[in-house]
Specification:
The chain is of the alpha+beta class. The chain has eight helices and 18 strands. The strands form four sheets. The chain has a nine-stranded antiparallel beta sheet. It has a four-stranded antiparallel beta sheet with strand order 2-10-11-18, with no helix packed on it. A three-stranded antiparallel beta sheet has the order 5-7-6, with helices on one face. A hairpin with a 2-residue loop joins strand 8 and strand 9. Helix 6 packs antiparallel against helix 7 and helix 7 packs across helix 8. The N terminus is likely disordered.
């Protein structure tokens, strides 16, 4: 595997055009609030049923939000968390499928991706809005105790019922639900047109595009600066980083992505990780797992699992490492 090193910083992804002489003519855009963010469908080429299809796609995304949002008290996930260590609760087959996939990804990523980290998210109060304000942090003893709960967390189920143990266990699907919802929405897309969907700044191509789509990469410190471009012919692209949601304690910055093995917010030489994969679920999961694991462990994990994904790591010393894929590549911008 060959890795290339350059001096770039990567931030937010946004559409900048097609790799084709033809310009985008009057794209059709549909947008709805969901999952604490926005779901947007952009049709680049003509789709006669674009409005009908977009609404159907949004309903798929909304369905996942209704089932696994921890902000909705009646969601399957909220009920499961509330009953931890107590009793079985009724869950939808879709929720069960997401739970099963989450367990599989936990094993595949050597535990760096772990929905049981929801107990740590609650302990650090990252389940509440955070915008760089001053906050206190949990005690070392409470963190250690909660890591023990995370490590012992187990989900059991029958065909329609599930239970979560031990008491105090809590699940959070923030690093898989968006990707899963996009894959579900993608399953109803017509192959006739070309476009992409955007859910909380995770992108997935839809339809049948005759030319690659290009997505600009912004400097997290300057949203007007394009530092790199990723060109995709299919699949999904997701970025995980610690530069947006954080709080300050004793002049120290604590970001919202927590290492489930240590119990503390991630601190490493990695500023962000961007992953592009065939499925949105994989892009979502692996961008988080690789960010938490760090560069060296992440590279080793990808090689061991023989993952067919593209990855772009941005390091704090402003070096960048990346691996292209058969369906996506990094285009270097002039700095």
């Amino acid at each position: 595997m060959k890795f290339k090193v350059h001096s770039l910083i990567v931030g937010v992804l946004f559409f900048i055009g097609c790799h084709s002489p033809a310009s985008v003519q009057d794209p059709k855009v549909h947008r709805w609030p969901v999952m604490g963010t926005f779901y947007e469908v952009t049709w680049i080429s003509h789709e006669p049923k674009h409005e009908e299809l977009s609404k159907l796609m949004f309903e798929k995304v909304k369905w996942i939000d209704e089932k696994v949002s921890t902000y909705k008290s009646q969601s399957d996930l909220s009920k499961l968390n509330a009953s931890s260590g107590q009793t079985y609760v009724l869950i939808d087959p879709t929720t069960k499928d997401l739970l099963e996939k989450s367990i599989q990804y936990r094993a595949q990523t050597k535990g760096w991706f772990n929905i049981a980290a929801g107990a740590l998210v609650k302990l650090w109060k990252f389940d509440e809005p955070v915008h760089g304000e001053q906050r206190n942090i949990p005690s070392d003893s409470n963190i250690k105790k909660t890591v023990g709960v995370v490590q012992k967390t187990k989900i059991d189920w029958t065909d329609q019922m599930a239970t979560l143990n031990p008491q105090g266990a809590s699940l959070d699907m923030g690093a898989i639900a968006k990707g899963y919802a996009m894959d579900l929405a993608h399953s109803v897309v017509s192959k006739a047109a070309c476009g992409f969907m955007n859910l909380g700044r995770q992108i997935m191509l839809i339809g049948n595009c005759s030319a690659p789509l290009r997505f600009g990469v912004q400097d997290p410190n300057d949203e007007n600066q394009i530092l790199a471009t990723i060109e995709l012919t299919e699949g999904s692209i997701s970025t995980s980083g610690a530069y947006e949601r954080f709080f300050i304690h004793n002049h120290r910055r604590y970001a919202h992505i927590i290492n489930p093995k240590t119990g503390y917010p991630v601190e490493s030489d990695v500023l962000s990780v961007t992953v592009w994969a065939q499925s949105a679920t994989e892009a979502d999961v692996w961008s988080t797992a690789l960010f938490i694991a760090g560069l060296d462990e992440g590279i080793k994990m990808i090689e061991q699992e023989k993952k067919q994904i593209g990855v772009l790591w941005v390091l704090k010393d402003q070096r960048i490492q990346y691996r292209d894929s058969t369906f996506g590549r990094v285009i270097k911008n002039k700095l």
